[in-house]
Every structure is written in C-alpha cells, then in structure tokens.
Amino acid sequence: MTFLAIDIGNTRLKWALYAGPRPGARLLAHGAAFHETIDTLADTDWKALPAPASMLGCAVAGDVVRRRTEQQLELWDIDPRWIVPAAHECGVVNGYEHPSRLGADRWAALVGARQRVLAEGRPRPALVVMVGTAVTVDAIDADGHFLGGLILPGFGLMLRALEMGTAGLKVPTGEVVDFPTNTSDALMSGGAVALAGAVERQHRRLLQRTGASALLLMTGGAAVKLAPMVDLPFEIVDTLIFEGLLAMQAHRLAL
C-alpha cells in the first residue's frame, strides 16, 4: 500500500514515497525536480520506484505544470488526486474568507502542523512558516482554527525587485550579518531581517490572541537561510506538507 505524496511549488516539484497512506509511515524515497525537468521523472527518478498504490498532491504552479506531472504519473496505474482546501479537514478549521482560495500547500502544511501539535498531547497554537519563492506565515489556535496568515516575497523576489527598481544594485552573493559594511551583505541581511521580523511579529500577535506560546515550524527550500535570523525557538520540518498529505489521505480512506 505504498503512497506517493507530491508538492508542486512555484519553482520545484517535491515528492516522497511512503510505506503506507498514514501519519508516521516510513519514508522510502524522496526527491525534487525543477519545473524544467518534470518531463523526465518517469525515465529517471521514478523509474526504479515500486509502484505506489495511491497518490495525493498539492499544486500551486498552475494547470499546465500539474498536467505535465500527471503525464509522468502514467508510469503507474494510479489516479492522480489533488487537494482543494476545504472548510475543515483533519482537525483544522479553515478561517480563510473563501476557504477554497487558500493555497493548497498552505492548507497541507497547516494540517501537518496540527498533527504535530496533537502528537505532543497538549493542544497549543502553531505558527507555520513556509520559505520558498514566496514566504507564508500562517497561524492556527489551540483548537485548530486557522486564523489567517501573511504572504511575503521570498529572498529571490526581494532581491530582484531591488535590482529592477534601484540604479546600480545587482543581485548579490553576500552574507547575512548583523551590521553589514558592503552592499551585497546589506541586501542579503535586509531581506533576512525583514522576513524574520514578520515571523517574530506574528508570533507575538498569536500569543496576544491566544494567551499561549505557539509551536513555530519552518519548512521550504530556503528555511535554513531564514532560521538563523529568528530569535525564537523553532523546528525545521522539511516534510511538513507531506505529513499533511499523509493525514488527509488516511482520512479519505477512512470515509
């Protein structure tokens, strides 16, 4: 009963094959492909995998990329299934003004975060930070209600915006430091501090709203770049979206 989880982001497709469609299932294999190389997955990364019995994915990159992925899934006899954010699922209540318009990846990550909170045995709020092409900072309270969240430009988008809108600035290869003394470091540090400030502000707001300190979870390809700048206890969970997809698939099978 192997299970394939897929997350199609704005830049890359991430995938993970699990021993079964349930939370805590053993991870058998995983990988990632840039959009440009999706059309080779059936002949490369997926060719030697055992055939999954089912799959579930989230896709925010658009219908064209999703259909290209489905063509690669024809390698196996499985029906592609893609999540659409609902009003409630797996213990999370969707507080978005229009629930179905919430990003599918954000919804899966929130479900994954809720599973982690419940596994601790003492419900508490959680703040979910996904750091990729864009950065999202989403809050859920101790009862699993999604309160809302921020969307910010990621590191690359910030730097390219400065390059395009400011004479003489080029996308740098600088470092993140406390007091930059060159332009490259100033640009990199400025972006990191801006994102870290947003996370810390939302963490304070969530504490004020709920009266309890939140579990702070970070995920996404650039989470390791942001994490050192955040002056709060946190955990980086690379598989957070997949953990949400596992819980959703288990729930679907139980219906």
UniProtKB/TrEMBL annotation:
ATP binds at D7, I8, G9, N10, T11, R12, L13, K14, T133. It catalyses: (R)-pantothenate + ATP = (R)-4'-phosphopantothenate + ADP + H(+). Pfam families: Pan_kinase (PF03309). The keyword Lyase does not apply. Its EC number is 2.7.1.33. One of its GO terms (molecular function) is pantothenate kinase activity. It comes from the Bacteria. Transmembrane segments: none annotated. Keywords: ATP-binding, Coenzyme A biosynthesis, Cytoplasm, Kinase, Nucleotide-binding, Potassium, Transferase. Pathway: Cofactor biosynthesis; coenzyme A biosynthesis; CoA from (R)-pantothenate: step 1/5. Its main location: cytoplasm. A monovalent cation. Ammonium or potassium. The active site is at D105 (proton acceptor). HAMAP family: Pantothen_kinase_3. Catalyzes the phosphorylation of pantothenate (Pan), the first step in CoA biosynthesis. Homodimer. This is Type III pantothenate kinase. It comes from Rubrivivax gelatinosus.
